[in-house]
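hey can u check if this looks right to u? its 94 residues, i copy pasted from the old doc so theres a chance i mangled smth
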Amino acid sequence: MPATRATSVKLEPDVKERLQRLAEARHRKPHWLMREAIGQYVEREEKQQAFYDDARKAWEEYQATGLHVTGEEVEAWLETWGTDDEKAAPECHK
């Protein structure tokens, strides 16, 4: 396991009390709950940032090339999924 370092977090008294009650109900230490919550938050935010980065990259690529697929083309393609006549993904065009 990688080395860990202590970081202090200041909590409002009501949040600290709620955390303590939840920790007792879960038979966990408040520290464990905070680490779990922070880890889940960071993972979720990283995924969201990656989504934004991908969207920005796609927009920049579209701006540079003009290549795209219309919503109607995507819908027509998706309607064939799982059928005997499943189509290939539509090609990008200008």
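Residues 23 and 32 are 8 Å apart (CA to CA).
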